[in-house]
Design brief:
374 residues, Carbamate kinase, 2 domains, 8-stranded mixed sheet, 13 strands, binds adenosine-5'-diphosphate, binds ligand VHF, PUA
């Protein structure tokens, strides 16, 4: 109960909606329900809360459009269904947000996009730019091209990774049950709803052991796992019934709906710990005194102008060490430019990056969120 204020205070949320909810249990896109969620999300956005939507439903909607009653066995059929269904999904989301004068954008990701450092930073910059522009990113797995080796597998995991990517305060998972119960409520009529736990609580696994619904992929197991992943960047997770009247608005008002799974540490501490665990550095940036001072005071990004020299070979997104003029390490961080580019823009002001490189991917050499002082 005590922690519900976190949901009220959140400034950036990832909201994931499952297949059964979106497609009215496989009968086809539930436009009325979708419109209801869009109305509530729009109210959040008007309140200056940034929202990224993770929408499942492409396979379920594709099956419904193609008149398939049973989930196909072959991967290429599933992928074909996803391709058909994704059209309907994005069209419907777009039309609904347009009613409120809001733009939306389709983002299809594969696991590779988030495991490759460079693509990770690109995905992150694009999502951030969309949020800055007031556009609602609508994310799904790129089902048409994924194979088993490169799939997230379920959108709960994808939702958590997106929450890590955009450093969301929280992940809200809308599903067809009112939340996480102590046992599968489809099989046990006396199951009781779990209100609040630490995401790391080992007792949650046994509760979530029942499988998924007909249309979903992961059931509660993937939702609990997603909550643990989200907790790694300090985000809370709410698992809640998407059919509850005004569910998003009521959560936002602090009402105790669904199950709240909490991280053990705050967002910034979690991120810094994650960064600090990257032991291997690929190169070194030697900073001038001004830059060293600014970084050590904390909370500031490293700009190219403060870099005197660059050693080593590294790529955008890799970890580099930052040292003062005497070679003493002062910080580490994920660098926004390849080594050759970093050399070319070192010592220059950010507004000259375009002139030197022909493009600007970021104004900072290392963004403050990706920097840890040592
Ligand atoms: N302990 C539990 N509490 C709630 N639901 C559970 C539990 N164990 C298993 N389930 C099942 O998980 C299903 C939701 O997961 P899933 O079908 O993957 O939905 P979604 O499409 O929303 O991701 C529920 O319909 C429920 O039957
Ligand atoms: N990318 C798939 C998502 C599958 C999935 O995870 O479904 P769900 O468990 O309902 O969130 C689709 O759009 O059908």
């Amino acid at each position: 109960m005590a922690e519900r204020g976190r949901v009220q205070r959140a400034r950036r949320l990832v909201v994931k909606i499952g297949s059964a909810l979106l497609t009215d249990d496989g009968r086809g896109l539930d436009v009325t329900a979708l419109a209801g969620w869009v109305d509530q999300l729009t109210a959040l956005i008007r309140d200056d809360i940034e929202v990224v939507l993770v929408s499942s439903g492409s396979v379920a909607e594709g099956m419904s459009r193609l008149g398939w009653r049973e989930r196909p066995q072959h991967l290429h059929e599933l992928q074909a269904a996803a391709a058909v269904g994704q059209m309907g999904l994005v069209q419907t989301w777009e039309a609904q947000f347009k009613r409120h004068g809001l733009h939306s954008a389709q983002i299809l990701l594969t696991h590779d996009d988030l495991s490759d450092r460079k693509r990770y930073l690109n995905a992150r910059s694009t999502l951030r730019t969309l949020l800055d522009l007031g556009v609602i990113p609508i994310v799904n797995e790129n089902d048409t091209v994924v194979t088993d080796e490169i799939r997230f597998g379920d959108n709960d995991t994808l939702g958590a990774l997106v929450a890590n990517l955009v450093e969301a305060d929280g992940l809200v998972i809308l599903t067809d049950q009112d939340g996480l119960f102590d046992r599968d409520p489809r099989k046990h009529a006396d199951a009781t709803l779990v209100d609040e736990r630490l995401a790391s609580d080992a007792g949650l696994d046994a509760m979530a052991a029942g499988g998924a619904g007909m249309l979903g992929r992961g059931g509660m197991q993937t939702k609990v796992r997603a909550a643990r992943l989200a907790a790694r960047s300090g985000a809370f997770t709410v698992i809640v019934g998407g059919r509850l009247e005004q569910v998003i608005t009521r959560l936002r008002a602090g009402e105790s709906l669904g199950t709240l799974l909490l991280p053990e540490q705050g967002r910034i501490a979690a991120r810094k710990q994650w960064l600090a665990s990257h032991l291997k550095t690929r190169g070194q940036l030697v900073l001038d005194d001004g830059a060293v001072r600014v970084l050590c005071q904390g909370g500031r990004s490293l700009l190219p102008v403060g870099v005197r020299s660059v050693t080593g070979q590294f790529r955008r997104g890799e970890m580099v060490s930052c040292a003062d003029e005497f070679g003493r390490e002062v910080a580490r961080g994920l660098v926004n430019y390849d080594a050759d580019e970093a050399r070319a823009i070192a010592g220059r002001s950010s507004d000259r990056i375009a002139e030197v490189l022909g493009y600007v991917s970021d104004e900072e050499m290392i963004h403050r969120d990706n920097l840890v002082i040592v």
